[in-house]
Amino acid sequence: MTCEDERLRGKHALITGAGSGIGKAIALRFAREGAEVVVNDIKKEAAESTVDELKEFGHECFAIVADVSDSDQVQRMVKEYYSKFPSLEILVNNAGIGGSMNRVVSMPDEIWDRAMKINLRSVFLMCKYFGKLMIKQDAPEGQVRGKIINMSSARGKKGRANFAEYAASKAGIVSLTQSLALEMGKHRITVNCICPGVIHTPMYGPVTAEALASANQIEPPCLDYKPVGDPEDIANVAFFLASSDSDYMTGQSLMVTGGRLFV
């Protein structure tokens, strides 16, 4: 399957946590649109499996296995990436973990620290080390130089009991996105984030979409014909943010929840 227009042709994209779920769906959508894609994941087999699927679109792609919450590994990623691709037009910071279902008063310190490290510190590190090179790359005068897309969550806009460390880490991404947009705008780099609602991904293990919908009835979606989203629903929005259609948009956090939350 290919997209006739291939609106990302000539663009290079790096997507973290792209071995499965939302990240993989974004990688596949970008490749269908003509982009050359680098797949990052902490799991080697998962990253290489996504790359194998991307190859059918005929564009150059490869995997970089790294823990993006580790500064040394991110700096190694930078060297590996630029040894193969000359520029980075689209950076998608998608890697993350879910919540632990602990109450704040009984949450182990390490649970809190782990969420902040994997969900928030990783975005900071990727934007820091790749961003400093993105601002230096050539771009036609008057056009956007690059796009940064961060993956937050609907919980980053509205907290929920027993989700404190997850919600706080995702709220940090929303705030970081706004700060980065202000810093990077003068370099013609846009920074936006996506706030998914309930999306059926491998993160939920063997749980079916129906069971996942039933477990989240406290906040029913407006689109009751589709109570749970698919990774492709998020990939579609990521493509919009990666395309020229969103060039005049930065610092925004897009809720993609099927109307499950309004904030």
Describe how the helices and strands are arranged:
Layout: E1 12-15, H1 21-32, E2 36-41, H2 44-54, E3 61-65, H3 71-82, E4 90-93, H4 109-134, E5 146-151, H5 164-184, E6 189-196, H6 209-214, H7 231-242, E7 253-256
Parallel strand pairs: 1-2, 1-4, 2-3, 4-5, 5-6, 6-7
Helix pairs in contact: 1-7, 3-4, 4-5
Average pLDDT reading: 94
CATH class: Alpha Beta
Annotated CATH topology: Rossmann fold
The fraction of residues in strands falls at: 5-15%
Tell me the helix content.
25-40%
Strand adjacency order, main sheet:
3-2-1-4-5-6-7
What overall form do the CA principal axes indicate? Answer: globular
Number of domains: 1
Tell me which CATH architecture applies here: 3-Layer(aba) Sandwich
**In this structure, how is the largest beta sheet organized?**
7 strands, parallel
Gyration radius from CA atoms, angstroms: 18 Å
Instruction: Kindly report the name of the CATH homologous superfamily.
Output: NAD(P)-binding Rossmann-like Domain
Tell me the distance between the termini: 36 Å
